[in-house]
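=== RUN LOG ===
request id: a7f3
mode: sequence -> structure
chains: 1
length: 379
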Amino acid sequence: MDAAIPAVNFGASADFALGIEEELILVDRDTYALEHSAVEVLERLDVPPEEGAALPEAFAALIELTTPVSPDAGEAVASLANLRRHVRSVGATTMGVGMHPDGAFGDVVHYPSERYRLIGSEMRGLMLRTPTAALHVHIGMPDADVAIRAYNGLRAHLPLLQALAANSPFWHGHDSGLATARAQVFRGLPRSEIPAAFGSFDEYVESVEALAAAGQLPDYTFLWWDIRLHPVLGTLEVRSMDCQSSLSDVAALAGLVHALTRRAAEERGPWEHRDALMESSFRAARDGLDASLWYDGRLRPVPEIARSTMQLAMPYARELGSDGALEELERMLVDGNGAARRRAAFARGGMPMVLSELVEETAQPMRAAVGLGAAVDRP
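=== RESULT ===
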């Protein structure tokens, strides 16, 4: 195996097991301004390995929380709630949001590690704008053939996932006019797109190796695609979504990804063209729940696409035990996603209301929900 993909471990965990990663923004507990304190917070944290992990990210104002491998979305979100509790217990204040709504342009400190030093030196001013924070979902793949089928098929749902997860309408103290400004800021980096479909896993490997050679990349984790295979972990990773403040929203999104991945593993094509997906991705980032996206041969509104997709996904969600989490999607469609809540908060009380509501939502326990059991995080 080429150095770009040092190992292939599909089948190493239970088939279609799930893991969640979220990049929370660290803020001052009084002013809610960006706080570049990840080094100190991580030094204070002591998370038992069986409960997941708290890790650094590129920016010192971020902390990444990673759940253990879980059988379903409900259990994964319960683990995430527990990890958030660990972070609060050491005095850290966090926001689950794609970008800090009021962060000043250039208010950036990079985490002191060799990986992030390399990224900063290569990206230059692109990494000196403002921190961005995402939600990633990993699904365990039984083998390489299933992995490439699931990868190819799941690409078609990335714009919908991006629209549902949109949670960063504000940047630098102003309304960006976008539902997720994070998505478009991140698009400024190379290798941050929806990639093409591949005919086989070998073709995927050849493409990754060629791209790594052309870019002098240490390995495939420097490909920041909206979706990618993660052969070392043995997973398929969806990376197109904003970080969320609401654990209920995380459950909805993770449940949908879980079920759609299981469904996509059975698909044989034809696969959606990259160019059409990229156009829908921009429309999703711009308009969020109000977007119309290219779906089944024509432009359709996001709520219609979401409900149709839920019907397709529900049998697989029941099989996987993520149906309770998936049902949270209807609440999101009715009550609004993160972007809608941010703008509603601004209308009520300006930027102070946006910031305080984000901090409060991120600290809230997971409410009891069908299929998720009792509240999974208690003070």
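=== NOTES ===
The domain at 18-363 is CATH 3.30.590.20 (Creatine Kinase; Chain A, domain 2).
Confidence is low (pLDDT under 50) at residues 373-379.
=== END ===
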